[in-house]
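User: Need the bound-state model for NAP:
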Amino acid sequence: MKGESNKRRCCSVTKLTKLGKSDLYVNPIGLGTNAVGGHNLYPNLNEEEGKNLVRTALNNGINFLDTAFIYGPKRSEELIGEVIKEIGKREDVVIATKGAHKFVNDQVVFDNSPSFLKQSVEDSLKRLQTDYIDLYYIHFPDEATPKDEAVGALKELKDEGKIRSIGVSNFSLEQLKEANKDGYVDVIQGEYHLLQRDAEKEMLPYTAQNQISFIPYFPLASGLLAGKYSKEDTFNDLRSNMPHFQGENFIKNLEKVDQLHPIAEAKNAEIAHIVLAWYLTKDSIDAIIPGAKRSEQVLNNLQTLEVQLSPEDINKIDQIFK
Ligand code: NAP
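Assistant: Bound-state model below.
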């Protein structure tokens, strides 16, 4: 699945990679957009800055955008729709979005029923101002719907041309196997980064064997793995509740990240690039979707493509975060 097509990006050539069994080709460095209009996740987000992140990405060779109904809610999809319309060239962009969240009496519940998923896709199409979605994920599993039935609904939407490929997210291995009974799942998205490596045990081997791309979310552990935080830093957003940002754990994690300095320096790269490049050495990880809050970060993350990790580097990083 890796490196099957070439596309010109600015002054160099980026190898595009195929996602799963789909016919989608993406720059391995995508853009996660939960900070584009994701007002429910980050306070005080500026929407124009969010749109600028998307513009910067699309104008510099990133063609893979990851959004969801719940980012905002709805605003991330709407802002992305506006930028794509403004830039044009819809066919050059691979839009991934997700649904499953439903508001009942102001409470969020998950719904994977075929009727809800079909309505959710229709609503996302409108917000994104497009007539097809390249990759549609079931964002979270619900308890009631058989997973192959939920995916069956997405297969019907695919046959109708409303979506081009099928994804699931936050599914356990068992749920993924049930979802993929008929072989329809192209991509799974799950939490995986150097501080959370459970997926290595069974999930990554399964995805590699079944031609499913695994897209890790939180690849920078929400910024912790970018090597710029210190123990004095505090957070007033979703990070304030994350285990790896708490007390002693936070300090230990910072010490581990610190050990990446020599590898980064030897390559004239930054820690974020080393971390992001490490994921792309894994078999079924064909692309990553680091988020960003500033356009410089979007551009900076593209430099990951210049980094070559040797087997020794890969092993060393592995050991630091074992
Ligand atoms: P992330 O990619 O681990 O971290 C992104 C944060 O790291 C940025 O907001 C920025 O934060 C910092 N950063 C990014 N590039 C940097 C650079 N070059 N140098 C220094 N700092 C840098 O976390 P995420 O954005 O939450 O996750 C990525 C994407 O995954 C999301 O945008 C979303 O699309 C997706 N996601 C999916 C699920 C799901 O349930 N499927 C869940 C979560 C996320 P600061 O500037 O604040 O430091």
